[in-house]
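== Sequence, C-alpha cells ==
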Amino acid sequence: MTETQLDIQPEMTMEAIMEVAPSAQRALFQRYHVGGCSSCGFQPTDTLAQVCKDHNLLDVNEVVNTIVLSEQVDKTTQIQPAQVREWLAAGEEFTFIDVQPPSEEELVRVEAAELLDYNNSAKYMEREKDHRFVFICADGDRSLDVASYFIGHGFTEVKAVRGGVKAWMESVDSNAS
C-alpha cells in the first residue's frame, strides 16, 4: 500500500483520515503521543495539518508516512482465526490472550484463550521478545491496539485475530462460550 493509494492529504480532517486509515489514531499515539488522552487529543474536525501544528510536529509528510506504515503493519499483524486454530491443533507454542476486560464478562469467550490478567499485565513483558503472542477481543479492534502496544515494546512475534471473537465464531467455532 502506498501513500497515493491512501490519498492522505494535510488538509483532510482527522475523521476523514481515520475512515481511510483506521490505524491513524493508534499510529499517532505510538509515534508522537498524540490522540491518546484529553491533553494530547484532537477533534475529528481538526485537519492533519492543524494537529501537526498544535503538537509541534513540524513535518506533515513524515506524519502521513507514519500513518501509511501503520496501515501496512496492521495488515501484517492481523491473522485469520483459522490459522490460530491450526497452531492450537498442532500444539505450537504461543500465548493466546483474550483482551476483553472483565467488565465485559457477558461477551462470548474463546475457550482456548486465557483472559488478560489486567491486575498483573507486566508479567507478559517478562517474556522473551521473540515469544509469540496472539490477542483476541470481541471484534478485532482492541486486540490490534494491544498487539501494537507489544510491538512498540519490542516484541517481534505478535498477532491479533482479524475480526475477533465474531470472526472466530463464524469461521472456527460457533460453540464459543
About this structure: The chain has eight helices and five strands.
